[in-house]
Design goal:
By secondary structure, the protein is an alpha+beta fold. The protein has one domain: Lipocalin, CATH 2.40.128. The protein contains 2 helices and 9 strands; from the N terminus they run αββββββαβββ. Strands 1, 2, 3, 4, 5, 6, 7, 8 and 9 form a 9-stranded antiparallel beta sheet that branches. The longest helix is centred in the first third of the chain and has 20 residues. The protein is globular, with a radius of gyration of 23 Å.
Length: 146
């Protein structure tokens, strides 16, 4: 009996250690660029905060139709995009035409930045859109809606 346990002890220890390793949280992975709700957090070198009683500025790249939808904070935006590897270009964007009492300068700067986007990079839950020179234009944070 002692020999059987002694022979099985190394195997039992390996199983117990493997079980403990399974309790560690999984390694963080990058959010997908497409089909993710990206909340605008920074434009150039300035932080962006939502205006009270208005939508937060955000965008979602819908992979199936290659369409972008979102909000500048006041107005909804929609349009097309082209994606090839790390290269990203937005087509002509359309917006609704509401006038809001606050946040219009941020919305205009956001739309102007989208016109200059050339490349993208996702690290974890953060998306950075940059121009052709690699200068960051806008930063986003992934938001899980469900």
């Amino acid at each position: 009996m002692k020999r059987t346990f002694a022979a099985a002890a190394p195997s039992l220890a390996a199983v117990m250690l493997a079980g403990c390793a399974a309790l560690e949280p999984p390694a963080a992975s990058d959010e997908p660029l497409e089909n993710t709700y990206w909340k605008l957090t920074r434009l150039g070198d300035g932080d962006v905060t939502a205006v009270a009683n208005q939508r937060e500025a955000h965008l979602v790249l819908h992979a199936e139709e290659r369409r972008v939808a979102g909000s500048g904070g006041c107005n909804r935006l929609m349009g097309s995009y082209d994606l090839e590897g790390e290269a990203l270009r937005f087509g002509r964007l359309a917006t609704t035409m509401m006038a809001c009492p606050a946040g219009m300068q941020t919305e205009r700067a956001f739309l102007d930045a989208l016109e200059e986007v050339a490349v993208w990079e996702v690290e974890g839950m953060h998306l950075t859109l940059s121009d052709a020179d690699g200068e960051p234009l806008a930063d986003f944070e992934a938001v899980h809606l469900y």
